[in-house]
Amino acid sequence: xxxxxxxxxxxxxxxxxxxxxxxxxxxxxxxxxxxxxxxxxxxxxxxxxxxxxxxxxxxxxxxxxxxxxxxxxxxxxxxxxxxxxxxxxxxxxxxxxxxxxxxxxxxxxxxxxxxxxxxxxxxxxxxxxxxxxxxxxxxxxxxxxxxxxxxxxxxxxxxxxxxxxxxxxxxxxxxxxxxxxxxxxxxxxxxxxxxxxxxxxxxxxxxxxxxxxxxxxxxxxxxxxxxxxxxxxxxxxxxxxxxxxxxxxxxxxxxxxxxxxxxxxxxxxxxxxxxxxxxxxxxxxxxxxxxxxxxxxxxxxxxxxxxxxxxxxxxxxxxxxxxxxxxxxxxxxxxxxxxxxxxxxxxxxxxx
Length: 352
Description:
By secondary structure, this protein is an all-alpha fold. The chain has a domain at 200-303. It is built from 17 helices and no strands. The radius of gyration is 21 Å and the shape is globular.
């Protein structure tokens, strides 16, 4: 118990380094990317990693910038796992965190599929390796040297990602199908890992992960129907096969529903028990963040070390998304009001 309290105290101390709403408002008033880069370097949570980028505006492209900012997330992850004394807590935190590892795999697969190379887009081999756990990726050099998707997946043999990808790979396979398999693996692994937690933590974590899965399934249905125009049968096969508060019948009904092009298209996602989430919808991401922050705040009252950790990681990922979007907005000359309207900035105390 004392160890858990010490861990939660550590997470609260780390949370003090989050960028505040006032700091975001101040950053939105900066007129150049060069100046913005210097200002972000001064932020406590990023001073150690942001110096890797060029001070010149030309060096601040979105993709390498996002990877560099994410290095701060990996640093925080290492601090957490070093401070977590029990194996079960460390294992679950890592299971939650591998979503960032999956992002890197998707990036590499996309580059290979487009006949590109990570070096062509400003990435170094060391930067990519920083995003992949060396204990998991024994053939990381072979992975980075892959020239086609078949070779890339072969280089993953021995990792947790090989089986899901090898099961659907064939010459000419769509990137969509490969990415879906990685997403399904991530959430099913997380759902399984939560069962290993102590009963007191399991209930709160189940509420967070279950709600996240429900929200993801709703969001995916909307995107699959509106942007990919795929059949209800294929949509259903691409969803996370977990029913938390959404019943299987509700999901089938939503997958079969026609999305009519209109200004309030998101309102067509209204389905119990998430009616209120999309009732006055702005964007899918905004609704998702708002709901998940509320869920994390409620679950955090249980005093769980794991909940404290995943709530922190969720907030850090949101902060990095906001900073990346802010830099792009400044690059394109948007004003403070336009910039802030495109960010989701948690209110003070929104997550405890």
